[in-house]
Amino acid sequence: MAEDLQALMERIQKDAVDKAELEATSIISKAKEKAAEIVKAAEDEAKAKLEQADKDAVAFTERSERTLEQSARDLLLSVGKNLEKMILDLLSLQIEKSLDETTVKSMLLAIAKSYSSNIDVEFSEADATKLSSFVMGEFAKQLKAGVKVESDKGVKFGFRVKLDGGKVSHEFTEQAMAESLSALLRPQLAKIVNKAAQGK
User: Fold this and answer.
1) Which of 109, 168, 174, 189 could bridge 95 with an S-S bond, Cβ 3.0-4.6 Å?
2) How far apart are CA 64 and CA 58, in angstroms?
3) 174 is a domain residue
4) Range of the domain at 164
5) How many separate domains does the chain show?
6) E-state strands within the chain
7) In the Cβ-directed half-sphere of 34, how many Cα atoms lie within 13 Å?
């Protein structure tokens, strides 16, 4: 009887140990599964964050490149405008020097050969005083029509002629000539600026 009791106790103890081992194995297995899930979730999150960081870096690089390109274009436009202004100023200076009294008289005589109607000639105040007798004399004789001399504060050098009661006007002022020459130079300036932009 004592042996039966001993065997029963050993069997109960063995069953309890087996049950405990089974539960421990189950707990360990569940813990491993949970740990694997946590690791997988962490890896997925890290991967997603890395992918987002890559996308953000690409977007930032593209924005930076666009900003730099825009800044470079703005700089080139600014340089082009300043260069154009400088050339226009230089042209004005050269034309100003070229529009001396002799040149203006020659230009007026050439105009007199081309027109036969009444003409108003506008000069700067200084040139109106200086050239008035020439216009009323030799120019009027060549023109074979009426002529009137006026001064205009808008004219610094050169002159302006008006025909048909002011409906038709031709400018031979330093500003008009400089603008005409500058218009011819603009395509060349554009080429120079484009070459500079392309690094050639």
Assistant:
1) 174
2) 10
3) yes
4) 100-182
5) 1
6) 119-123, 147-151, 158-163, 168-173
7) 6
- How does DSSP classify residue 163? E
> What is the per-residue pLDDT across 107-147, written as a single tens digit (0 to 9) for each?
888 888 887 778 888 888 888 888 888 888 888 888 887 88
Give a yes or no: residue 25 inside a domain. Answer: no
The total number of residues shown for the chain amounts to: 200
Q: Write the CA distances from 93 to 5, 90, 115, integer angstroms.
A: 129, 5, 30
pLDDT, tens digit (0-9, with 9 covering 90-100), for 21-51: 787 787 888 878 887 788 787 788 878 888 8
Distance, C-alpha 138 to centroid of its chain: 53
Specify the CATH number for the domain of residue 156.
Answer: 3.30.2320.30
Task: With beta carbons less than 8 A apart as the criterion, state whether 163 and 119 touch.
Answer: yes
Q: Which of 155, 154, 172, 166 is nearest to 118 (CA)?
A: 166
> What whole-number distance in Å separates Cα of residue 134 and Cα of residue 112?
12
Please indicate, yes or no, if residue 196 is contained in any of the structural domains: no
1: pLDDT strictly greater than 70: no
Q: Where are the alpha helices (DSSP H) in 99-200?
A: 101-114, 125-134, 140-143, 174-198
Q: Look at the pTM and tell me if it is higher than 0.70.
A: no
